[in-house]
Structures are given as structure tokens and as C-alpha cells.
Specification:
The structure is a single chain. α2 packs antiparallel against α4, α2 packs parallel to α5 and α4 packs antiparallel against α5. The protein is mainly alpha-helical and 123 residues long. 73% of the residues lie in helices and 0% in strands.
């Protein structure tokens, strides 16, 4: 094994925190979680707004809280994917970033469609 260089030991973690590679991977994972629909942000939003799976909860409110909980990771995924692609990197970061951008756009579209359905269901 080789010893790391002194520059690597003194580099701050923030230098590579939002580099294109990590941004692309996190964006891809967030987009996949939003598309799967089962993530902690959705559950947290539902519990904070008091609309869990109970027999007294309204279906429109359930969809609205689900969509609100999915909007944040979908938007974060879009921003991180944009950052990964726009950083000027070449290689796998761009491929994963572009895939994450497509997944996040689809997830955001379905989330907005669910929010529209919740609004229409309330009327």
C-alpha cells in the first residue's frame, strides 16, 4: 500500500463534497426513491400534517401530503443532477447525472400530477 500524499491529507472534505461524481450518485438515488414512492420524507410529511393511513383521513389530503413529501427530494434530485452535468465533467458522472435528471423529471411530473389529482379530489 502506498501512503497518501500530504495534499490529500490536508484537503478539506468540502472540496469534494459536491463534486460531479457524488452529486450525480445522490441525484440518481433520490430520483429512484421518489419514483418508488416509499421514502421517509413522504412519511414524515404525512405524520407532521396528521394524515396517516387512517379511516378518518380524506383521500385528497392523503394524496396532497404524499405529493408534498415527494416534491422536496424530486427538486433536490433535479438540482444535483443539473450540477453534476453542468460541472464540465466527462465520463461516468455525466451519464449518471443525465440519467438522474431524466428520472427526476419523470418523478416530478408524477408528483405534480398527484398534487393536481389531490386538488381536484378536494373540490
Amino acid at each position: 500500500m502506498t501512503d497518501p500524499s500530504p495534499e490529500a491529507l490536508t484537503a478539506s472534505p468540502s472540496d469534494s463534497f459536491l463534486a460531479p461524481g457524488p452529486s450525480a450518485v445522490v441525484a440518481f438515488v433520490l430520483a429512484a426513491l421518489v419514483l418508488m414512492g416509499n421514502n421517509l420524507m413522504v412519511a414524515a410529511t404525512q405524520s407532521l400534517l396528521g394524515q396517516l393511513f387512517t379511516s378518518t383521513s380524506d383521500l385528497g389530503q392523503l394524496f396532497a401530503t404524499w405529493a408534498v413529501g415527494a416534491l422536496l427530494p424530486a427538486a433536490a434530485s433535479l438540482l444535483l443532477a443539473r450540477r453534476a452535468v453542468a460541472a464540465g465533467a466527462v465520463g461516468w458522472e455525466v451519464v449518471v447525472g443525465r440519467a438522474a435528471f431524466v428520472l427526476a423529471a419523470v418523478a416530478l411530473g408524477y408528483t405534480l400530477l398527484m398534487l393536481l389529482g389531490a386538488v381536484l379530489h378536494q373540490q
